TrEMBL record:
Gene3D superfamilies, per database record: HUPs (3.40.50.620)
Protein origin, superkingdom: Bacteria
Name of the molecule in the record: YdcF family protein
InterPro entries per UniProt: Cell_Envelope_Assoc (IPR051599), DUF218 (IPR003848), Rossmann-like_a/b/a_fold (IPR014729)
PANTHER family: DUF218 DOMAIN-CONTAINING PROTEIN, INNER MEMBRANE PROTEIN, PROBABLE PERMEASE
Organism from which the protein derives: Saccharopolyspora endophytica
Domain DUF218: 42-141
Length: 217
């Protein structure tokens, strides 16, 4: 289990890393939505954004996945809420959506949890490499909402060190790149442009064996 990106794959991994960053400029939104995952940095970033006044209300959404059940046995959203409260976010400002098991459910169940509230804009907070997929999914599931994406501004090498497994991170980058096209084809997300250099990097990483997070029919 290496904690450094292999030099022969660095350029391709960084291309994918940069591609998944939507580069959105922050603006005030009605609600901040923290998408559950293994990455507690999502909750940390929500705390920072809430403290800076970017939204008055937080939704943490997520049940469990095989990759999170040991770390967050009571559910991703529940643990995120506890972490955020521990860092000063008032419990009254947090809504927990504890049932979603995929990104589409994250968005749809969040929409249901906010029924009755005037919600026109969402600031989606995710893992860095999930931004583009979260955006494409949200625009499909909740098309009338104004969507802004944000993640912790973490260089790839720092993120790999935090996760402790370079191969796992590259596998996830490759898997999310596949999902951008595949989920649009299946009607789960709106299409996103995939530049030729991104597609080429993706294909090289596939050929190098980074296939463990692919969707397989």
């Amino acid at each position: 289990m290496g904690t450094a990106v292999p030099e022969e794959h660095r350029a391709d991994a960084e291309l994918l890393w940069d591609y998944h960053d939507m580069g959105h400029e922050l603006r005030r939104c009605d609600v901040g939505v923290g998408l559950g995952s293994h990455d507690l940095g999502v909750a940390d970033h929500i705390v920072e954004l809430y403290g800076s006044g970017w939204f008055p209300l937080v939704v943490f959404t997520g049940a469990n996945a095989p990759t999170t059940v040991e770390r967050f046995p009571r559910g991703e959203a529940v643990h995120y809420r506890e972490h955020a409260i521990g860092r000063g976010v008032p419990g009254a400002a947090i809504v927990v959506e504890p049932k979603a098991t995929n990104t589409a459910e994250n968005i749809e169940f969040t929409r249901q949890a906010l029924a009755g509230r005037e919600t026109e804009s969402l600031l989606l907070v995710s893992k860095p490499y999930q931004q583009r997929r979260a955006f494409a999914t949200a625009k499909k599931v909740w098309p009338e909402a104004d969507i802004v994406c944000s993640s912790q501004r973490t260089p790839l090498d720092d993120y790999v060190r935090a996760i402790g497994d370079a191969d796992r991170v590259i596998d996830m980058l490759v898997g999310d790149t596949q999902r951008i096209t595949l989920y649009a084809e299946r009607g789960f997300a709106v299409p996103q442009d995939v530049p030729a250099e991104v597609e080429a990097a993706y294909q090289r990483l596939l050929a190098a064996g980074y296939t463990r997070r692919l969707v397989r029919d």
